[in-house]
Amino acid sequence: MVQPVSDSELALMRIVWSAGGRARYAEIMEALARSGCTWQKNTVITLLSRLVEKGLLRVNKLGRRNEYAAVVSQLDYQTAQTQALMDKLYAGSARGLVAALIQKDLLTPEDYAELKRFWEEEKP
Questions:
Q1: pLDDT at 14 over 70
Q2: Entry pTM
Q3: Which is the most buried residue in 20, 56, 88, 105, by most CB within 10 A?
Q4: Dist. CA 1–CA 104, nearest whole Å
């Protein structure tokens, strides 16, 4: 099972995923700075260590530098967390989740049309 992560950990995972699944520590810090994030070095190292402990990242030594590699893809993480949400709130029912999105106008007609096209194209 893919463990859930905090919002801060997810921000780091998104950086690694957007870098093709691998990013050196310096690249992660640069991406954080570009986004306006001012986390200190120790904070980032702690968050990366937690992601390694949770099994979402693997660390590789490149000389004296660390490269972090995603063990779990973004799609696999999203799928696992969506399934956990459905199980927790909708007793595993995708229909219940979609019905809630539609009833509360969280799914726009454009979203619905796009999903319908996706379903028709991807359907075996």
A1: yes
A2: 0.86
A3: 56
A4: 30
